Every structure is written in C-alpha cells, then in structure tokens.
Amino acid sequence: MSDFWILLTGSLVAACCGIVGVFLVLRKMAMIGDAISHSVMPGIVIAFLMSGSRDSLLMMFAALVFGVFTTFLIGMFERGGIQSDASIGVVFTALFAIGVILVSLFARQVHLDQDAILYGEIAFVHWNLWEIGGVSMGPKAVWLLGFTLFVIVAVIGLLYKQFKLCSFDPALAAAIGIPVAFFHYLLMGLVSMATVSSFESVGAILVVGMLIVPASTAYLLTDRLGMMIVLSVAVGIASTFLGYGASVWLDASIAGCMVCAAGVLFIIAFLFSPKHGLVSRKLRQRSLAAAANG
Amino acid sequence: MSEAAKHLRQEQGPAPLSVSGLSVAYQKKPVLKGVTFDVNEGELIGVIGPNGAGKSTMMKAALGLIPSIGGEVLVYGRPVKAQRKLIGYVPQRESVDWDFPTNALDVVLMGTYGRLGWFGRPGAKEKAQALECLEKVGMADFADRQISQLSGGQQQRVFLARALAQNAKLYFMDEPFAGVDAATEKAIITLLQELKKQGKTVIVVHHDLATVQQYFDSVLLLNVELQAYGPTAETFTQEKLQRTYGGRLAFLDHSLIQGGSGQSCDRGDRTC
User: Fold this and answer.
1) Model-level pTM?
2) What is the pLDDT of residues A245-274, one digit of tens each?
3) How do B218-223 and B201-205 pair as beta strands?
4) Residue B43, domain member (yes or no)
5) What is the 3-state secondary structure (H, E, C) of A44-74?
6) Which residue of chain B comes nearest to A28, CA vs CA?
7) For chain B, how many structural domains are there in total?
8) Tell me, what CATH number does B99's domain have?
9) How close is the nearest chain B Cα to the Cα of A214, in Å?
10) B101·A178 Cβ contact <8 A
11) ipTM of model
C-alpha cells in the first residue's frame, strides 16, 4: 500500500507543479519559483509555531502570504533599479535565512526537521494519516495536494485566456483592461500553494525541479500552450514513476531520484525532440545543406 | 494646445482622443512634457520624432500602461479606462516572445478577449472572425503556423490582424513599419486606408520620414515636448522638422520634405 500512496503523492506534486511551472517557464520566471520555494520557509515555521501542527490550512495560508510577499519585494527592488537576478537573490536568501533562524531557535519545541524541509520525506507520507472519527481517510499530504490541484485547475481553467495573454503580451492585456498585476500575484499565489503542498513530500530544493524541469521538457515537445500543460504534467508523473522505481532499485532518496528522472527526460527531449531537439535540428540542417549542394 | 490643433478641433462630438498636459518621467528625468493635442475622427496620424523623443512612451501613457505624472487623456470624451473596448493596440513587435507556444490564429484570437468578459472563451464565432482578419492581411494560409516560424513581416501582419479582431474605433500602432519587407509595408498601408475608409482613427508611431507625406493625413512632431501638430502639408515642413530633430536632421535628404506650400511631392523625386 505504501507504494501506491507514494506514487499518488508524487503524481499530485507533479500535476500541481507541472501546471504552474509552465507559466513560470513561459514568463521567464523560473528563478522566481526557486525564490518562492525558499522564502515560504519563515511562513511555514511561523504557522507551525502558532498551530503546533504541520498540516494545517494555516500553514498553507502563511506560505501563500510569504510567497506573494516575496514576489512583491522582488518587484519593488527591480523597480527601484536593482538588477532582476540580484533582487531575487537578495530577497529569497534573506527570507530563507529568517526561516533557518526560526527553525534553529524553536526546532526543539516544534519537532521540525531541517532535513525534511530541505529534502522532503515522501517515503513516510502514508504514516501521516487523516482520521475522522477513528476512520482513516488516507494520507494528509494526498488531501492537501488534491485540494491544491483542484484550486490550481479551477483558477487556471476558468481564467485561462487571461493567464495566456498576460504571459504572451502583457502590454495588450493591460490595454484591453485585464488587471495584469492581479494575475501576476494570482499566479504567484498558486505557485506558493503548489510549493507548500509539495514541500513535505519533496522538500524545498527539489520542488523547484518539479516546477521547472517537466515544464521545460514540455516546452521542447509542443507548439501549443494547452498541450504544453498536458505534457508538463505527463512528464512530471512519468518522472515520479521512473524515479520511484530507480529509488527502490538503488535504495536511494525517492525525491532525489524523481527529480533526477525528470532531468534525464529533459535531456532526452533536448536531444531528440522531433521539432526542437538538437539531433533533429542537425539532421534538418544537413538535409537542407545536401539539398542546396546537390 | 497648438494653433494647428485648435484650428482642427471639430465641433461634432468629442474627439476620438484628447490629450492634455500629459507628462511622464522615468526616475526624475522627464521623457514627456505637457503634451496636449486633439485627434480628428477618421484620420491617419503619424507620430514622428528622433529616438528617445518619447513616441512609444506617449502611446503607452495615453493607454494608461505606464504611470504619468500629470495630464488627462480622454477617449471619445471619457477616461481611457472606461473606453478600452473602443481602443485597438499594436505593441512593438519586439515586445513579445515569438517562441511562445502558439500559432498565428491563436494570436489573432487574443484580439477578441477584451469583449469576452472574465470567464468567456473564444468560440466558433470568434474563430471565424479571427480567420477573416488574417485573410485581410494576407495571412490566411498561415493560420496554423507556429509564430516563431513566421518572418518578421508576417509576424507584424499577425499583430495587425489581432488589432483588427479587436474591432476598435481608435487604433494605436507602435512602429508597425519597423523592419518589415515591402510586401508587408504595402499590406499595412492598404489596411490603414481601409480603416480610414471605415471612419476609424489610427495613430501610428513612424520612423521613415520618406513615406510620411504619402501615408498620413496629420503628423505630430514630438521631442519630449510637442513640437508641432496638424495637417501633414502644413506641419511636415523643413523648418518644423529641423526644430524637432535639432542638428540630427542633417543626414536627411532635403528634397524629401516639401517647403510647406501644400503641393504633393512624389517620393524619391529629387527635382521636386
């Protein structure tokens, strides 16, 4: 049964991260995903200290606040004339450092494991069950991720055209009256939600891999946005299964193997994608050259 | 308001665009200072000025895309925010990432988003309309083409088709002629003429001084401040251009500019 829950959790992480990851990649904000995944730390610790439990909606809310706050700070520094990559670096390391201090100060009271925060503990996901009146409803992580996935699918599904236009041409979006800043922060809120729900399973560092790698792989495989989202989720789920298989075989970190598998799939797409792959591009050039010379 | 603009102001109904005292500053440095003008309905207006004169900035500020430090912009007598459905916008081609995973038809469909409301989706009606717009710019055969596979001129025509799909009354176009091939230039000018025939008003940021007289009914000369505005024949003169461009006009072929007599001058005809 543990295999099932681990694979289901991993697939839900892949789906949540895969969908919002597409928009991060297209808006050239991959490193914002990195920043958010780190700077939600203090939010999680504060919520943890306040509620004393690790799976409350309060935690989700606190992470959401810190995630949006992060992007707000980054934007503010950028407008103030700081280079974009520098302001990302300043904001997320500073917020993450606050989280590190909080954990080191209060870790004993709150049983928050630094390793778990950084690397996740998907292997233990089926031990932390949600019980109603003594009846087990399954792992809490699955419920949390399921809820997040529902919110992400509902919001992006309903407002798909706004997210699309804000990603492709924010100037036109603003000109026709779409509140571009609102959609920016809405997306950042969804990224924060995806990050904090995936946190427990894959950790703060590897969640960036699930946000960016499958979406980047999908980018190489299709020319349509809708298809890119589907492929991003599919590649993420494939990485989950391949990675879990590899981790059992190697007896190694599950989350590590999952992101590694995603990396391998990315390399394969980078080399062999029919349209954008390195190999197919070289072959096309060669046949064009042959046609031109022959 | 300049004398010419005052002279031009029509009595019938509010102007499609009325800008007064529009000022923009980037980090304390003014890039646009007290620009005031009214636009006549059904005209093609060229916005001319040297690099860094604030032409694009003026367009963006008028549309409310960037904050202005002063001034008022009215579209058909009401604030621009309330009139977005009447406005079509063609941003500079370089302002978007053409590697975005989408095709030409889909980009044109984006022009219909403004009237679909929050949750509406483009349907068969919008698709048919988008195809029609692609046809008007001679791009119907490229509807399914990934946008990065299009040439620069074709991309520009897709942008124009998208503006057509907005079905606006007042159009802002930011350098639609920049870096396009001859076929596209022709397609654009045909389209502008057609829009004019339909009574629409089009404001175009333009770089090529050689074609100004041929393309535009009015010109607006801008260099941070408004230098001159009025009918092309009266405004596009040696003296006013000199004032707008300062010393930088030296490289210009003087024969391209008429002396304000109002007679039309064939482009490239050096004896004119």
Assistant:
1) 0.87
2) 999 999 988 888 999 999 999 999 999 988
3) unpaired
4) yes
5) HHHHHHHHCCCCCHHHHHHHHHHHHHHHHHH
6) B97
7) 1
8) 3.40.50.300
9) 15
10) no
11) 0.87
